[in-house]
């Protein structure tokens, strides 16, 4: 390469980089739009509001938790159906009739998910259920840790079945999974 063509080549490479940068930004924008559309479709399918303000989220969490507390005596001893059972009287989790070892906090997360099964449970709802005092609340990401550990334990005990589903920008749902045919 001669010294005369070097500046021309440098300009050409810079132009290629700028085109690539614009394509990348456009691709990122399209991916973000796709994520938003998927969230909107999921919320329509699940019947949850498309956008929830902090006050609305707080109110929904309070209503769900108050209904749990108010109906404490009338709640069934065992929540869920199919392969997973949450036994409230013994505070045990069973898959296919076999008890699963989980911590108290993991149990309380699963208890709320089981009570609201097939409905979205938000991070705020879980935090309110786990930490009743406002000054007692840890970082919200602790919920992700509990969910992750629960998923792993449930998956291992059920030969790979996924009971907890993440709904992007909404929360989690505990799905009923029927027992395999004998």
Key structural traits:
182 residues, two-stranded antiparallel ribbon, 12% strand, alpha+beta
Task: Tell me briefly what this model is.
By secondary structure, this protein is of the alpha+beta class. It is built from five helices and six strands.
How would you describe what is shown here?
- With 182 residues, this protein is α+β, with helices and mostly antiparallel strands.
- It is built from five helices and six strands.
- It has helices spanning 5-46, 54-70, 104-115, 123-130, 142-157; strands at 78-79, 84-87, 92-95, 98-100, 164-167, 171-174.
- The protein is elongated.
Oligomer: single chain
Beta-strand percentage range? 5-15%
The tally of helices reads 5
* Poorly predicted residue ranges: none
Q: Strands across the major sheet, in which order?
A: 1-2-3-4
Radius of gyration: 24 Å
Task: Spell the H/E element sequence.
Answer: HHEEEEHHHEE
Spatial shape: elongated
Lay out the secondary structure.
Layout (H helix, E strand, L loop, with lengths): L4 H42 L7 H17 L7 E2 L4 E4 L4 E4 L2 E3 L3 H12 L7 H8 L11 H16 L6 E4 L3 E4 L8
Antiparallel strand pairs: 1-2, 2-3, 3-4, 5-6
Helix pairs in contact: 2-4, 3-5
